[in-house]
Amino acid sequence: MAFCFLLNALLERERWARERLVSFAGQAAELRLPLWPSLRIFIGPEGRLEPGGPEPSAAITLRGIEGASAFADELRYLARHLRPDFEEELSRLVGDVAAERIGGAVRGLASWQRDAALRITDALADYAIDERRALVRRVELRELAADIERLSGTLAGLEQRISRLD
């Protein structure tokens, strides 16, 4: 798998990172990107990434690394301190021009996924609010609360008038 291959090439050059992963051999993480199937990887006995694995104890998403395990903490540490240049790694395999074009395509795909996820979320919210009237906008809710408060005050005044008439 290309993803594992590229990260393993980086781990070969950054041995300190691979050595840190050795103690987590057998543990798995899942890469979860919107509109793509999840990709599960696990740490092999030498600290290398392998496809598949057991139930993941960490999830890697566009928002970051999720999970409460020591493995998730270690992945967060590596994400902060390990700065890979994937285009440089790829250029060693396919050349500079092809690596630059592939990198641009991957950045474009990631940008498209973020944009598509935001647009879908906005469209669903608009549908639920405007079309189905299943949800209410905050402004409308505040207006309703103010109207109810005015009505409550008016009713209290009417009750006082009626009690004076009796």
Number of domains: 3
Gross geometry: elongated
Tell me the radius of gyration: 27 Å
- Specify the number of helices: 6
Mean pLDDT: 89
Could you please describe the fold and organization of this structure?
The chain has 166 residues and is α+β, with helices and mostly antiparallel strands. The protein has 3 domains: 2-84; 95-135; 137-166. Helix content is 63%, strand content 11%. The protein has a 5-stranded mixed sheet, covered by helices on one side. The radius of gyration is 27 Å and the shape is elongated. It starts with a helix and ends with a helix.
Summarize the entry for a quick read.
The chain is α+β, with helices and mostly antiparallel strands and 166 residues long. Helix content is 63%, strand content 11%.
Q: Which helices and strands occur, and which strands form pairs?
A:
Layout: H1 2-13, H2 15-22, E1 28-31, E2 39-43, E3 49-51, E4 58-61, E5 64-66, H3 70-81, H4 86-94, H5 96-131, H6 138-165
Parallel strand pairs: 1-4
Antiparallel strand pairs: 1-2, 2-3, 4-5
Helix pairs in contact: 4-5
List keywords for this structure.
166 residues, alpha+beta, 3 domains, five-stranded mixed beta sheet, 6 helices, 11% strand
